Give the backbone structure.
Amino acid sequence: MKLENLIHEKPLLLDAFPQWFKDLKQSALQQAKTFGFPHHKVESWRFTPLRQLRDVSFSRINSIKPSTSHPFENVDWQDIEALWKGKTFHQGTFLDALNIGLINDVHVLRICENNTADTPVRLHFDTLEEVFNFSHLVIIVENGIEAHIELRLGNKSTKESHFLHLLTHVVLKENATLNLIEIKQAGQGETMLQSLHVESAKGSYFNHYNINLGGGFLREDINIQLNGALAQVDLKGLFTPRYTEYVDVHSQVNHNVPNCESHQDYRGILNCESHGVFNARVFIAKDAQKTNASQVNHNLLLSRSARINTNPQLEIYADDVKANHGSTVGELDDEALFYMQSRGINPDDAKRLLIAGFAGNIIETLGSENLKNELRETLDAWFDFSYTKLK
Amino acid sequence: MSDDRKFNDNMTEQDYKYGFVTDIEADTLPPGLNEDVIRFISLKKKEPEFILNYRLKAFKNWKKMTEPNWPHLSYSKTDFQAISYYSAPKTKELLESLDEVDPKLLETYKKLGIPLEEQKMLAGVAVDAVFDSVSVATTFKEELSKVGIIFCPISEAIRDYPELIKKYMGSVVPSTDNFYAALNAAVFTDGSFVYIPKGVRSPMELSTYFRINASNTGQFERTLIIADEGSYVSYLEGCTAPMRDENQLHAAVVELVALKDAQIKYSTVQNWYPGDKNGKGGIYNFVTKRAIAQGENSKISWTQVETGSAVTWKYPSVILKGDHSVGEFYSVALTSNYQQADTGTKMIHIGKNTKSTIISKGISARHAHNTYRGEVKVMKDAEDARNFSQCDSILIGDECGAHTFPYIDVRNPSAQVEHEATISNISEDQLFYCNQRGINTEEAIAMIVNGFCKEVFKELPMEFAVEAQKLMAVSLEGSVG
Amino acid sequence: MLSIQNLHASVNGKEILKGVTLEVKTGELHAIMGLNGSGKSTLANIIAGKNTYEITKGDIFYKGESILGKAPEARSNEGIFLSFQYPVVIPGVNNTSFLQAAYNAKQRYLGNDEIDAIDFLDLIKEKIKLVKMDDKYLRRGVNEGFSGGEKKRNEILQMVTLEPEMAILDETDSGLDIDALRIVTDGVNAFRNPSRSFLVITHYQRILDYLNPDVIHVMIDGKIVKTGGPELAHVLEEKGYAWLENPSESM
């Protein structure tokens, strides 16, 4: 059974589900049928190697629950109904609609107490192999609370084929802060997609790290709605694909109200025959004056066969705003390499240092020392393996 | 600020200065498009068989294509059967000198500030004036032909230089390229042809003034410029159209070919009727412009100042095929009232050590929407390719939009590609500063916008640069004279 | 020349000027001293016609005529010049062309012939000597890439070129080293004559040592709390503004 054929599945309608949810599931599957499987003529799938996605084929569907260090709430369907009322994102794309249609649970994480970068809530999705895994997560950060969440996707030692589609709905209440550190580290056979929908209320801060360290096919669709004044968003990311890996980031940041800020900073290091896509769009609504928005994407191509598409996009309808973006693509700086060599550093170490420095712009801003160390080591190993040995 | 806002509104409401119609009897086909119409055009123009076949093939393809809907534009789609595909001023034979030209026509040019005779003497510009699809006056032909330069209507080139046409027409923009290019290939009426022989530097800037005149007549110009090895040419294209209620379609194709060590500089000032302040009328400008820097060390430079048209869809592009070839795109796009522009460029790096530069300045006022859309592509074997792109926008007022959609696709690790963009407005501080120095708001805005566009204007030939600056001021001012 | 009468002004409902009265006679140089936020720069901007303030009471007369209803450019053309505390950068607009546009706007207003670019260049080359500015700054964008000191010199260059009768210098001394201050004040002094008046706004007495003011006003919290001769600057320098803290006592 191929992914595109899942639309023919019967939605699982448990007795415990309220009628509105059963209706939503049915209409979502119907919507998925209407959309049809993504194709290249749709702007958001223009650069994606769809064949890879189309070829995923398993015989079972699984609604997966992640392991967590913080208990999920018992689902209060009325609460969920209120939260989703008037929202359309559940049926906004083929995959999101499929997700709603096929899950049999919603996992609600409500954060009412502060925690720290060193004691984050830890979530891990270690998926079953040879199964279509779908999961739906709702994260609510209450008024004025500062939360740290570490979300890990995938299992790097697996050799099997995996598929995960995760739909995450983040609700930031007034003056709430969420530091969401997402690490995707998976095997070559893993296909993982996350669709992240964030609603930012007044004065809230969403600080997102999207670290992609491995996986055959990784895609993140980020959708941010800045709905309250003085809300702020930082989207930082790192991707280091190798082999024939594909990694994709599509972000849409909507400034719906005045006086909000959004900043995006993504770094890509691409090796072997890998392919990366950074497609970010900032939308500034007519009345969203005094917006401050930026998008930056820097990329290093380390191999003749690697490819990057970088499309930072601005769509602006308000005149009193600050908005800018920049993208670069290049290889390691020859002069810097030569300079280091002239100081007695061998070329491999020099390259290692330059790459570490490049990625450091993202990694070194993390709050947790342990995590920084872990990522530095991972990157070092990445360098040893994929750069020194493969080159 | 509210007072200033009102002021800005006033100044962008100025009426179109060049709105008048010349009532020359036109030899016009009834509206509609089918094979017979194409055969009629071809016959009327005494074309050889291969051109007719080229047209018919393109028409066949066009029928299978659909109008693109990806641009950031909204407009009522054109009814292609409601357009008349041929219209020419009545001429006996090709005219030899200006004296033979219809005096009314000359009067029209005068109103537009295009005095042919004066230009002959003062600017040394050879003018191939296209009036409703057929060229009626060509000057300086003799002087150009002394050095072997061919500068003539493309219909004439089809008859006189079929080998060059066969080799190059459609080689850069194939008739299957896109909806409008296919339509153009099927029904093109006339346009300019330029051939610069090996090693020749054109002794003057070549220029064509386009003018759309007859009611409801689509314009399908086709221009082909070939710069042979080691040659150089600077070509100027400028245009302005009379006021008209119905939307007029313009779907031109421009192809440039630069061989080894050759250089083509193509500059455009586009000032077609943009519609009135309520968004009524105005030209639809769907142009396909593409160049190939085919030979080693060749160079293509596009410079455009776009202030007219209701809807603009235009991406002058460069295929950087030759090693060490260079592509440049300098653009100013000013939109006001209900104008919409979706414009930019494509730089396709194929050869080694190729270099491209993109400088784009967008200005939106009142209810206008201005989109930069560009692509930089570095192919697998394009070693050491370089690109720098800078795309800035200014918004004047809070009802307009400015959008920047760059696409960067790199497949070679030795590439260096940089893209930057900023969006800003004209600050109240800047306006107050100018006011305090005695400069009124209207003048201040024109000055600030011209300053914003400076990097592009300095790429224009001198006469054009002056004209362009005036055009910016006129397009933004309300109370001219 | 300039007469301000019981001027009240607010921004976003907050009152900044709370009844300023001031009289500058032809040929006089007045100084307004005061701390940050006392309303000095607001006053300067209002005289020049900035429209972000709401005048709630009072009036400003220039050459005997109320100017409150006039556009900033009209006030400028009639001879009011403001040297900005923070001169504005206008990217890409050539500094010389800008000044020529301003100069010609004034000539048009006065009914004189406009000057062409070549003659203007000659004129500006003379004027620039007064402020000892490198002529490379003439070729740059207005204040683009200028240091703080260069911007202030450029303001004075504009002043001596436009030849106003009422010049307001808003903290022209801030950010200047001693040499630059010397150059700027020399420029101002060379420009003084019996038909021109000046209003110099500053924190410090330093600039006044070079300018020999006729009258000094002290402004606190939107009001002029004390007016005196040149000696007042030295008293302030010694005692600070604290001794004037309670305005009613000092009046």
In short: Residues 2-476 of chain B form one domain. Chain B touches chain C at residues 1, 3-4, 427-430, 432-441, 443, 447-448, 450-455 (CB under 8 Å). Chain B has 13 helices and 24 strands.
